[in-house]
Write a structure and sequence with these properties.
Number of domains: 1
Number of strands: 0
Radius of gyration: 16 Å
Shape: globular
Oligomer: single chain
Strand content: under 5%
């Protein structure tokens, strides 16, 4: 990665970047209330599924496809990808929260790093052609900043899941 792009990528990956991710549990609270996650081992299994299935097989690849679609300004492909990735979320609350975070990411990123393509993406969102969901927004933000596709994937994997609990010592 070129050194001048590093600050933008670090800014985007900062846990304090204001998209509201701290306010959503991606269903963990409901699973805990239903008794599906009760022990540290249950939590570890939950986090493993989030990493392997959601980030590794769904959202991560979607962020990379979004990067390519945004780079090529293929708005139709971005809309189709966003609708597909949104439909794959099994719970309406996670669909809404993912779209809310994605829209906040693009809105905030566009204000910080203006790009006419981001303006077009926001217009599509205003016309309800796409959310954009968080992985779509992340891929588009990285492409708009000139961050490579490869670095986008690594950054999304880094930011796209909750940290694993530390093993207990002693």
């Amino acid at each position: 990665m070129m050194c001048r792009l590093l600050p933008a990528l670090l800014h985007l990956c900062d846990s304090l970047f204001p998209i509201g991710g701290f306010g959503y549990s991606d269903g963990l609270e409901a699973a805990t209330a239903a008794g599906l996650v009760e022990t540290p081992d249950d939590l570890q299994a939950w986090l493993d599924v989030c990493l392997d299935e959601v980030v590794g097989r769904m959202d991560g690849p979607a962020a990379l496809c979004a990067w390519s679609g945004f780079d090529q300004q293929d708005w139709q492909a971005l809309g189709a990808l966003d609708h597909e990735i949104t439909a794959m979320r099994p719970v309406s609350a996670t669909r809404r929260s993912n779209s809310a975070m994605g829209l906040r990411l693009v809105t905030t990123w566009s204000a910080l790093y203006p790009d006419h393509r981001l303006g077009h993406l926001l217009e599509l969102a205003r016309r309800q052609r796409l959310g954009p969901g968080l992985p779509i927004a992340f891929g588009c933000a990285c492409a708009s900043a000139g961050i490579s596709r490869r670095d986008t994937g690594a950054a999304f994997a880094y930011t796209g899941w909750h940290p694993r609990p530390r093993p207990r010592c002693g």
